[in-house]
Amino acid sequence: MNISRTLGYALEATLQLAKLEGQGPIPCRLLAGTGGMPRRFLLQILRILVDRGVVRSTRGVIGGYTLTRAADKISLLELVEAIYGPIVGDISSPDVPTYARTSLQSICNEIATATRSKLASVSLAQLLASAPTTVVPQGIPEPILLTFVPPIAGSQVILQQ
After folding, report:
1. CA distance 126 to 131
2. Which domains are assigned to the chain?
3. Which residues are bridge partners to 129 per DSSP?
4. CA 156 – CA 161 distance, rounded (Å)
5. What is the full per-residue pLDDT of the chain (161 aa) written as tens digits?
6. How many CB atoms are closer than 10 A to CB 9?
7. pTM for the full predicted model
8. 158: which of 43, 65, 107, 119 is 20 to 30 A away, CA to CA?
């Protein structure tokens, strides 16, 4: 599965909103600046997410964006389908031989079902929990930033400087 720039920005924005959950509406300019995303493009993406019920928009001087639900209640499937549309196993190509169409359609349906199931099992909160955390040690004259990447089962913890 390829992740487009559009989906990447949607993920970045919603993960930022999840991280700042409970702090009120977050302006698009802050989301764009923090995530290194073009503001105008991000506004288009946020509009899609608002229309799909993932994000809420608040107008006004203290306006901005918030998640419509807690981060553990929003799945990766919701984001993917908000950007790309429903994941279906459709064989619409006229180039598929007629004698193989039924078998291939069945296989594609199984793949789509498995993909939807896997994406639905991952929440924004889970993605946020696996994000690197930057730690600034106290009492050291020169600031040194250490990045901690949570380990994957069976792997080693590596501190990068």
Report:
1. 9
2. 5-131 (1.10.10.10)
3. none
4. 16
5. 678 999 999 999 999 999 999 899 999 999 999 999 999 999 999 999 999 999 999 998 889 999 999 999 999 999 999 999 999 888 877 888 888 888 888 898 999 999 999 999 999 999 998 876 654 334 434 444 444 445 455 444 444 44
6. 22
7. 0.75
8. 119
